[in-house]
Amino acid sequence: MATPTRPVSYALLLVLTTLPLALATSFPHRALLQTCQPSGTIAGESGSCSTENDSECCEDGRRYRTFACSPRVTGRTRASLTLNSFADGGDGGGRSECDERFHPDSQLVVALSTGWFSGGGRCGKRVVIRAANGRSATATVVDECDSKHGCDEEHNFEPPCANNVVDGSPAVWKALGLDTDDGVVPVTWSDA
């Protein structure tokens, strides 16, 4: 007489061996869910672009990538630190999105790429930025480094930000002991 557990054991073994294969083939591009891909492009338009902090200015007709997302935030999220003046008349363009104010270059403030800015969800929050030299600085999020729009007057005729930018004031660069002439520096950041 056969035992009733034997068919159940074979069925369970069959499910356990085929399930991983079925999951892997049902969505072969699942790795893409963990990365942030470009959402489109915009055509460049040149204009009156302030190059105060070596800002890149849009070129007529050139295509620029846009992003609606940013990489996942971790305890030490990798980013590119760029330089931005949030002061009146600075290369940051208009007033900061979070508080509709300008901020002096001596203030520790940042703008985050669109995905990290989270629709204003990080406004007023403090973030810790860490440089490769071991120094860190804590700054307040006051603006979005727009990854979806650019090449217009509102954005100083600069291209859209990359999806991994922490746009720091001169005070942030100074606190980190970095040379503003470097332009773009790899850093990590986290919520404070």
Automatic annotation (TrEMBL):
UniProt entry tagged with the keyword Ligase: no
Assigned GO CC terms: extracellular region
InterPro entries documented for this protein: Kiwellin-like (IPR039271), RlpA-like_sf (IPR036908)
Signal peptide: 1-24
Location in the cell: Secreted
Keyword terms, alphabetized: Secreted, Signal
Xref: CDD domains: DPBB_kiwellin-like
Keyword Secreted included in the entry's annotation: yes
Membership in a protein family: Belongs to the kiwellin family.
Name this protein carries in UniProt: Uncharacterized protein
Gene source species: Hordeum vulgare subsp. vulgare (Domesticated barley)
Organism classification: Eukaryota, Viridiplantae, Streptophyta, Embryophyta, Tracheophyta
